[in-house]
Hints:
Number of helices: 9
Helix content: 25-40%
CATH class: Alpha Beta
Largest sheet: 9 strands, mixed
CATH topology: Aminopeptidase
Radius of gyration: 18 Å
Number of strands: 14
Order of helices and strands: EEHHEHEEEHEEEHEHEHEEHEH
Strand content: 15-25%
Number of domains: 1
CATH architecture: 3-Layer(aba) Sandwich
CATH superfamily: Zn peptidases
Amino acid sequence: MVVTVPDEGQELSRPVNLPGPIAPLFRGGPSTEQGVTAVQKGVQAPGEPDAGGELQGRGEGLEWLIRSHWVRSVFALGGKEKMGGLLAVSQGSAEEPRMIVLEHRPKKPKKSVVLIGKGVTFDSGGISLKPSAGMGWMKYDMCGAATVMGVMRAVADLDLPIKIVGLIPAVENMPSGTATKPGDILTMASGKTVEVDNTDAEGRLILADALHYSARFNPDVVLDFATLTGACVVALGHEAAGIMSNDDELVSTLQKLGDEVGERVWPLPLYEEYLSYLESDWADLKNSGSRWGGSVTAGSRGNKVQVPSRCHTAQKNPRRTGPRGFLFR
């Protein structure tokens, strides 16, 4: 395997370790069914660094992905890309942040699609610490990453005539003496500044950097998946996932497909007025607004990304539904 630091062009031969809960997703043979199973197994893995074992540079799963169907894997530290959100969220953890890039590149692709999955392998909330009751469920905060990795396995197996890139910002959100604090000002990959109002609103920070990074692939469509906020469960319950998009036709297609496979989604608005909830006195915006419209303000951060078609999917909390590989199908 070749490990590349984007923009530097430097090839590294050292082994690369994936976050423990993510590593198992790269093991095993190709098939759509195994892709779903990989998602289910991946999200059930504990959040500890060594869970599921470590993945060396010649791990069999990655080796298969690299040699099959033009799928390439790239691992990079956020610092090379000045990804202030990715770096800030991981600042309190002993685990280094990673941007994982998977590419399926057919010879004559008809379209280009980027999939982005939130990969917080464990979310304690950071300095804005979550209540201890139920915190063990926060190992599921990488469901978006698991979905993207499972899809990329199936894409390689099906050899689709579409260029598909999977982006996974992988971090661990922990409190410590080095952790990001409320009131800190971050400079994101886009150059925008963000005031940290709540360190537990971390998913939108890493997704914002990943969305900016996605522009280099010139995508026709960007789909991002995240267990971003409990506010979406308050709005829709456990019966549907929320989606936000600048493309009504895409929303309609996703709703139809979701109904067919029993994975229902429901559109939420992206009105410009919601951005006023994130106004900051010290930066371009805050990472968290008021309690009102919480799921919409969380998802609206990517509303300014200049792509023809973009959709954010707020995945359901697996606490009730279980790790079924939701949205993979």
